[in-house]
Amino acid sequence: EKKDFPKEFVDSYKQIKWNGWGDTRKFLHTLSPSGQIAITTPKKSAEPLPGLKPFILKELAGGNGQSELEDTPSIEFDNIQIDPPKSNPEFLKELKAFFLSDQLKDDKFARITHTFGKSIRDLVRTRIGQIKYAPDLIVLPHSHEEVEKLVQTANKFNVVIIPYGGGSNIVGAVEPISNERFTVSVDMRRMNKILWVDRREMTACIQVGILGPDLERELAKSGVSMGHDPDSFEFSTLGGWLATCSSGHQSDKYGDIEDMAVSFKTVTPTGTLELRNGARAGAGINYKHIILGSEGTLGIITEAIMKVHPLPPVAEYYGFLFPSFAHAVSALEQIRSTDIIPTMIRIYDPDETRLSFASKPSKGAFTEFMSAAVKKYLHYIRSYDFNNVCLSIIGFEGSKKSVDFAKAHVFDILAKNSAFSLGTSPGKTWGEKRYDLPYIRDFVLDHNMWVDVAETTVSWANLIPLWKDAKAAFKEHFRAQGVPAWICAHISHTYSNGVCLYFIFVSKQNAEKEMTPYIQAKRLMTDIVMKYGGALSHHHGVGYEHVPWMNRYVSNGWITVYRKLKETLDPNNICNPRKLI
Ligand code: FAD
Ligand code: PL3
Question: By 3-state DSSP, what share of the chain in percent is helix, strand and coil, each rounded to 5?
Answer without folding.
Answer: 35, 20, 40
